[in-house]
Design a protein that fits this description.
alpha+beta, 2 domains, three-stranded antiparallel β-sheet
């Protein structure tokens, strides 16, 4: 081969270079492949929406769906609204000397339930038995509350029966009055109350012997 032919052959063949992966096109191709692999891995682990599907995640949208359930309502404790009601006898009823008063109540300890019967003939509030009845778990209570002196002289009179929720201080005052008196205990004034319920009844048979 002469010198002219060698020079022509060199011009016709491209110049030999280094490896493809070290060239600019090769580097770009490698980076693109690496990015595609990374994106596929992230999608597989994290999910297509970009939010980790981890049970118990701190994000609200990540919590598994829960079905609504009805939990039992706990019994009301301190701070509940206190209420009291007399269910028997009814307001305006005709009653006899032997009388049982019944009702319902919600009382927050240490407040107390007291029941009193007002005798207008002597202007006194008398204590029934027991004067501070316990309240059953269902909220019911009852007291034996005879009206009048049992001789019949009170027949035809109207009496007021009051059920009261009182503070510990008022309860102590009532207790001391009850303990300090010999016969049927009474107070001359209605004690202050937190909530109360009153009814008025007419005594149609005021003798303890019956009518």
């Amino acid at each position: 081969m002469n010198r002219k032919q060698g020079a022509a052959r060199q011009r016709a063949e491209p110049a030999k270079t280094g490896s493809f992966w070290t060239s600019i096109p090769g580097i770009c191709t490698g980076i693109a492949a690496l990015l595609s692999a990374t994106a596929a891995l992230v999608t597989a682990v994290v999910g297509p929406a970009g939010i980790a599907h981890t049970v118990g995640s701190a994000f609200p949208g990540n919590q598994p769906a829960k079905h609504a359930t009805h939990q039992p309502v706990k019994a009301p404790g301190p701070g509940r609204v206190e209420r009291i009601a007399i269910s028997e006898p009814g307001n305006g009823a005709d009653v006899k000397y032997e009388l049982t008063v019944k009702g319902t109540a919600l009382v927050n300890p240490p407040n107390q339930l007291w029941v009193l019967g007002y005798a207008p003939g002597v202007d006194r509030w008398y204590f029934p038995d027991p004067p501070s009845p316990p309240v059953a778990p269902d909220g019911s209570w009852s007291v034996y509350s005879p009206l009048g002196d049992g001789t019949g002289t009170d027949t035809g009179f109207k009496f007021t029966i009051a059920a009261l929720v009182v503070s510990p201080t008022a309860g102590e005052t009532l207790h001391n009055a009850l303990e300090s008196q010999g016969g049927p205990g009474y107070v001359t004034q209605e004690p202050p109350s937190i909530v109360s319920n009153r009814i008025e009844v007419k005594l149609t048979c005021g003798t303890s012997q019956g009518c």
